[in-house]
Amino acid sequence: METVKLGSSDVSVVPLGIGTWAWGDQLFWSYGRDYSQTELQGAFQAALDAGINFFDTAEIYGLGESENLLGQFMRQADRPVQIATKFMPLPWRFSSQSVTDALTASLKRLEQSTIALYQIHQPFDFFIGQKNLMNVLADEVQQGRIQAVGVSNYSATQMRQAHQYLADRGIPLAVNQMHYSLLDRQIETNGVLDAARELNITILAYSPLSQGLLTGKYTAENDKKPSGARVLNPRFSKSGLEKLAPVLQKLQEIGARYDKTPAQVSLNWLIAQGNVIPIPGAKNEQQARQNAGALGWMMTPDEVEQLREVARSV
To answer: In the annotation, is 61 catalytic?
Structure first.
């Protein structure tokens, strides 16, 4: 499978990854009730079989359980796997040593000595400060425990600052992981996407299927309710789903031309933006295989614009 570089770094990954927020998360995603470790291992293997070997996690996903599960699954994998994880700058983490210690703990759970990408989960710095955060990550790149540096949820200004601090150390800022989907396009208007393109920083798009809204699984007609805390999202209400109907209709219309599902069309739309790698979740084999179907084809520019236009009012 073709690969793309993470920004100006030396790390190349497949152009679509798997997000593992739901792996081990009981509160939001109902892990242990709606799905199990067995199903997640099936998703992991199905992704690898489809050529997708890039997985994004974080120390806070399932309070470390997501990393633990990935570590167990990788132990049994028969091919290389690339991992991205994240450091959460909590207020009681007030020194650079806390970053080093958190990375050590993540590597232990993942059962790895090095990972492809390490990201700052939120643009908080509290007592550490952004410059110290970036300097300790630069140190870790030089020591070989991480191969590329990223941030997550950073504004355009914050991203530029982090980019400059790293540039002073001769290291590129590789990614900014942001909420981005056909229904959530704030980064197109708040300067983040433009700055990322200017600085050659890749956008990792989390929740690229809007937590399932763009899969076609939820409609006003079937009145199916999502699991966990998603049920509180007004977009999953009957009125919210009625408003979404024209978008799903357009996704189905375009998908019919390529024999693709609404989810696959939605992910392909993100890839078509350029410099964007979607990282959809997958809780079972079927979802992992469906995600992979977003690769290997490309909709036309006119179809890209049709989807952009129909989603404007949602």
So the answer is: yes
